[in-house]
Amino acid sequence: MDIMKTEVNGINIAILNSDEVVIKDVQTALDLMATVQYEAGCDRIGIHKSLLSEQFFDLKTRLAGEILQKFTNYRVKVAIIGDFSMYPSQNLKDFIHECNSGKDIFFLPTEQQAIEKLSIL
Fold this sequence. Notes:
The protein is of the alpha/beta class. It contains 4 helices and 5 strands; from the N terminus they run E-E-H-E-H-E-H-E-H.
């Protein structure tokens, strides 16, 4: 996994990239959060969707809710980066819309948009 650290408006943001799935369940999400905070000192993280298990995008598994709740509990802002149009689920589209309306969790198409959202106080 690659961690690219950037600073915008005095805020450190980590953008994560990998060729393999890193987040498979709640524990691997917690491990990832701890690794990023330890190695990069960031509590704002952009995660390319390729790092997430496909189960994450099936809301019936409740994996997305459980994982994103951990990010919220630990006060880590997160942006999931990628194209989500391939998922036909209206529930997922509604979930993404609801997350994007908040201040802590975002689903965005590009790294630049993720950095912009995560750099807002």
